[in-house]
């Protein structure tokens, strides 16, 4: 069945976890005849140090196979791979989306996001995010040599692990007022799909008389999962 849209996020591809790369390549190969559109909602890669880095040419080729088959592939930045740029788009045929983006798919209004913007209770993370997600920091970083960039990326991962260590799950989860605020801003979509928290779940929200489902996608650490949307509805699958 090709009249189907598939959503994934938080694959966190990393050299030290080759089995995830295999799972994801098999997944892309398997779905080729089963979809018309693929949304990758952030953190496809554990880290991305620039399009000139020659990282993951196998993944780039596999995405290109999909777009060569006239499958639309949309990509959103995650907090780990926010340096994916226009060369990556050209090489893969994928299209980068703003976070958040409102899409209309099979007659449903669907709000899409990576999700880290929703975690506003984590003040330390949001301040760190602000520091590295501005154009000045990004340009300075991309000017450095590849080995310097790898060093900095590893340092940032260490900082991020340290941040997470002594923090409660509640602080690192989405803030429900912020979720409601964005749902109102986007005029009460039918679905809100995001990742980032690695807490896959369907949340039913009743907001000002509107029924909205917030669907959190799972990560691929233990096993891959993905969400399908077609005329029959929405469903989670394990790889
Ligand atoms: Mn993330």
Quick summary:
The protein is an alpha/beta fold and 239 residues long.
Protein model, in words:
With 239 residues, this protein is of the alpha/beta class. It has one domain: Purple Acid Phosphatase, chain A, domain 2, CATH 3.60.21. The chain contains 8 helices and 11 strands. It has helices spanning 18-31, 57-68, 86-92, 123-132, 135-143, 146-165, 169-172, 176-185, and strands spanning 5-8, 37-40, 72-76, 95-97, 101-105, 108-112, 191-194, 201-207, 210-216, 225-230, 233-238. Strands 4-3-2-1-10-11 form a 6-stranded mixed β-sheet, with helices on one face. A hairpin with a 2-residue loop joins strand 10 (225-230) and strand 11 (233-238). Helix 1 (18-31) runs parallel beside helix 2. The longest helix is centred in the middle third of the chain and has 20 residues, at 146-165. The protein is globular. The relative contact order is 0.18. The mean pLDDT is 95. Bound molecules: manganese (II) ion (MN).
Whole-Å distance between the termini?
17 Å
CATH arch. level architecture: 4-Layer Sandwich
The fraction of residues in strands falls at 15-25%
Helix content: 25-40%
What hetero molecules are in the model?
Answer: manganese (II) ion
In CATH, the topology is named Purple Acid Phosphatase, chain A, domain 2
Number of DSSP helical runs? 8
CATH class: Alpha Beta
Tally of structural domains:
1
Low-confidence stretches: none
Mean pLDDT: 95
Order of helices and strands: EHEHEHEEEHHHHHEEEEE
Question: Judging from the principal axes of the Cα atoms, what is the shape?
Answer: globular
* Largest sheet: spatial strand order: 4-3-2-1-10-11
**Radius of gyration, whole Å:** 18 Å
Strand tally is 11
């Amino acid at each position: 069945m090709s009249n189907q849209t598939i959503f994934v996020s938080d694959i966190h591809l990393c050299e030290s976890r080759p089995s995830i790369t295999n799972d994801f390549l098999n997944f892309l190969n398997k779905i080729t005849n089963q979809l018309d559109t693929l949304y990758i909602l952030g953190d496809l890669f554990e880290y991305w140090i620039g399009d000139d880095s020659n990282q993951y040419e196998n993944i780039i080729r596999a995405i290109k196979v999909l777009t060569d088959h006239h499958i639309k592939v949309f990509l959103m930045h995650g907090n780990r791979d926010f340096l994916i740029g226009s060369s990556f788009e050209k090489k893969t045929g994928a299209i980068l989306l703003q976070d958040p983006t409102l899409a209309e798919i099979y007659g449903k209004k669907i709000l899409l996001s990576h999700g880290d913007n929703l975690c506003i209770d984590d003040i330390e993370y949001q301040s760190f995010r602000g520091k590295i997600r501005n154009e000045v920091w990004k340009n300075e970083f991309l000017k450095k040599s590849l080995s310097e960039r790898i060093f900095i990326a590893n340092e940032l991962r260490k900082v991020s692990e340290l941040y997470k260590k002594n923090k409660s799950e509640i602080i690192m989860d989405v803030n429900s007022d912020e979720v409601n605020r964005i749902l109102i801003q986007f005029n009460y979509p039918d679905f809100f799909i995001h990742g980032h928290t690695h807490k896959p779940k369907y949340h039913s929200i009743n907001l000002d008389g509107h029924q909205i489902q917030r669907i959190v996608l799972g990560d691929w650490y233990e096993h891959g999962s993905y969400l399908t949307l077609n005329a029959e509805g929405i469903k989670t699958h394990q790889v």
